Design the sequence.
């Protein structure tokens, strides 16, 4: 698993052998079975997680029991609850494994230390956070302005490999539509 993370870093930033050694010393590998939770609502998030292999989702559940998927993370993606992590407050989210998954966890303390001691790592993190913020703003805008079919087509364009990996109800939850509407749209798209 550390090899996957090292390859990811090599593609993002130039680090010394000492930098890699310091980073690896702060990492913990965790394997999750399908449907196993990495974080539950009410728990305090204490880590940044890098997905080495597998598929995770982050979601909340409303008072009616409806799931609202806010984020998917597959290989080479990061996942966490930033608010809970930064504020030390109980999370409003669940993070669970959609597939058997292996993640590399870096505690907040270790992550902060890495950012302080390795400026290139901190720069990489800042770039990732900025891209994530931009993507979130774009998603919010599209949610308000797009039809269900436009949302689905945008998802296919942005994440072509996820459409077949995500179960229908999770993808519908992410798009903010019903599973029945998603089935209808998929049928329409496949006949075009």
Sequence:
């Amino acid at each position: 698993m550390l090899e996957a993370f090292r390859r990811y870093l090599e593609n993002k930033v130039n680090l010394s052998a000492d930098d890699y050694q310091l980073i690896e010393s702060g990492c913990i590998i965790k394997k999750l079975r399908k449907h196993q939770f990495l974080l539950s609502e009410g728990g305090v998030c204490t880590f940044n997680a890098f997905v080495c292999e597998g598929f995770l989702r982050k979601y909340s559940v409303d008072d009616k029991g409806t799931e609202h998927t806010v984020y998917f993370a597959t290989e080479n993606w990061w996942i966490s609850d930033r608010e809970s992590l930064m504020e030390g407050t109980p999370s409003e989210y669940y993070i669970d494994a959609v597939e058997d998954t292996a993640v590399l966890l870096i505690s907040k303390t270790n992550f902060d230390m890495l950012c302080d001691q390795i400026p290139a790592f901190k720069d990489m993190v800042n770039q990732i956070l900025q891209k994530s913020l931009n993507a979130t703003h774009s998603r919010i805008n599209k949610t308000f302005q797009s039809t269900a079919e436009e949302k689905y087509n945008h998802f296919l364009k942005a994440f072509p490999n996820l459409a077949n990996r995500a179960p229908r109800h999770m993808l519908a939850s992410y798009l903010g539509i019903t599973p029945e509407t998603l089935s209808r749209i998929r049928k329409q798209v496949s006949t075009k």
The radius of gyration is 18 Å. Residues 1-120 form a domain with the Jelly Rolls fold (CATH 2.60.120.10).
